[in-house]
Design goal:
Layout: H1 10-14, E1 61-67, E2 81-82, E3 87-94, H2 146-155, H3 163-173, H4 194-209, H5 212-218, E4 228-229, H6 231-242, E5 247-254, H7 259-263, E6 271-283, E7 292-295, E8 312-313, E9 322-323
Parallel strand pairs: 2-9
Antiparallel strand pairs: 1-3, 1-6, 4-8, 5-6, 6-7
This protein binds 2-acetamido-2-deoxy-beta-D-glucopyranose (9 copies).
């Protein structure tokens, strides 16, 4: 289950500071990961005993998340979905027990619409101030990474929000909760926003490994506004390709409220429109290196989709909402 928890433990252990950073007071020296053992991220290691820049000690359960949307809401501004491809949602660091926290370093708060609006999602959590500076896409320009920006605009496409606002949300809510993307990890010559570039590249590295559309297509599961698909079929195809059982997310009406569900007197109240896939992994050493092993989503939260035969709609995109991407996947 994705239950957010109040952040305590490791951060409190290293320093007692009011600044909302993962490991306040961490040194920028001596993070040569080549000299460290690339330990597995789960079960997590004690950050006082290993270099948390070289081993993920905070959020060791990595989730590569992808969306299937049928439109963006930004079509008139040219914000279109990549044809025949799921879009990148993010790369999330859950705790090894499946809970998670968010907005771990408010000095790197670039999200214009923080959601939730406090660090805990509770009224007594620390307020996350909405960001109002230059959009996060502009951070790539001093690095000359226009190719990265083009790729992100092709495949990391937001739903009912502008793309940079969404990338900033993913960075500030999730990337700041990885130990290995902490600023001291980049050494004393850290360049402003180097961590942002590193995170975007890493999220793409994982995204490219899991070509959901292609995997489903190879099993003759393709978008259709006529045919429904069965949860177990989709799950098995993705499991065979990835090696772990991913979380499969749906939205839309509940099956028991649809014409088909009512006709069958179904008690299956799962949702019926395929919308998201989350792949789970553990990493050896820095997640940036991509040396991972697959694992499965928690057995208690494998899907919120309907399980009745043929109950899942994998909808075709709306006319005018997709394009052939300008750069290869
Ligand atoms: C960095 O490594 C050097 C050489 O091992 C050592 O002398 C120094 O104390 C270390 N500094 C920190 C902050 O770890
Ligand atoms: C899960 O792990 C985190 C981090 O170690 C810890 O803070 C939290 O209390 C744990 N939650 C449960 C339900 O065990
Ligand atoms: C957070 O959002 C909720 C719901 O919109 C609102 O009621 C609350 O006042 C907000 N909290 C803060 C700290 O802004
Ligand atoms: C914040 O609120 C939650 C739920 O209302 C409560 O369980 C928790 O103890 C509160 N935390 C603090 C620090 O007051
Ligand atoms: C922009 O955000 C900063 C930091 O949260 C805040 O101090 C400032 O008032 C904001 N400016 C506007 C125009 O909202
Ligand atoms: C569908 O199932 C949900 C959850 O069990 C239930 O609350 C709802 O009343 C059901 N709706 C119909 C139309 O059966
Ligand atoms: C559904 O329930 C109704 C009323 O109880 C019954 O008449 C009908 O035969 C049932 N349909 C199916 C497919 O079981
Ligand atoms: C397919 O159905 C979805 C959901 O109703 C709709 O949003 C989309 O526009 C449809 N696509 C086409 C090509 O008709
Ligand atoms: C989308 O375009 C196709 C082919 O031109 C057409 O058959 C279909 O009715 C359109 N769908 C919608 C929702 O406009």
């Amino acid at each position: 289950m994705r239950i957010p928890v109040v952040k305590i433990g490791a951060a409190a252990l290293l320093a007692s500071s009011t600044s909302a950073q993962l490991y306040p007071g961490q040194s920028a020296l001596n993070h040569t990961c080549q000299l460290q053992k690339p330990l597995l991220s789960c079960p997590s290691s004690d950050p006082s005993k290993v270099d948390s820049c070289c081993v993920e000690t905070f959020g060791g359960l990595l989730l590569t998340t992808q969306f299937w949307n049928t439109y963006t809401g930004g079509e008139t501004e040219g914000q279109l979905l990549p044809k025949d491809t799921f879009t990148l949602h993010g790369l999330w660091p859950d705790f090894c027990n499946g809970t998670y926290t968010q907005y771990c370093d408010l000095t790197r708060q670039y999200d214009p619409i923080p959601s939730p609006n406090t660090t805990t999602g509770l009224p007594n959590g620390t307020f996350v101030p909405p960001y109002n500076g230059s959009n996060i896409g502009t951070f790539l320009e001093p690095f000359g990474r226009y190719d990265l920006l083009e790729y992100m605009n092709a495949y990391w496409v937001a739903w009912r929000q502008d793309n940079p606002g969404f990338w900033a949300h993913e960075f500030s809510k999730h990337a700041t909760c990885f130990s290995t993307f902490n600023i001291p990890c980049y050494g004393p010559q850290y360049r402003l926003h180097e961590d942002v570039v590193d995170f975007f590249e890493t999220a793409i590295k994982y995204y490219k490994r899991f070509p959901t559309f292609k995997w489903l297509e190879e099993a003759e599961i393709t978008p259709s506004n006529k045919t429904g698909y069965t949860y177990a079929t989709i799950r098995d195809v993705l499991f065979e390709n990835h090696g772990g059982v991913p979380f499969i997310g749906c939205n839309g009406p509940r099956y028991n409220t649809t014409a088909a569900g009512r006709a069958a007197n179904s008690t299956d109240s799962g949702f019926t429109a395929l919308s998201e896939i989350w792949y789970y992994e553990y990493a050896y050493g820095r997640p940036q290196e991509g040396n991972t092993i697959p694992t499965s989503a928690a057995p208690t939260y494998l899907t919120n989709c309907a399980k009745a035969p043929g109950a899942i709609n994998y909808y075709q995109r709306s006319n005018g909402s997709e394009r052939v991407p300008s750069v290869p996947y």
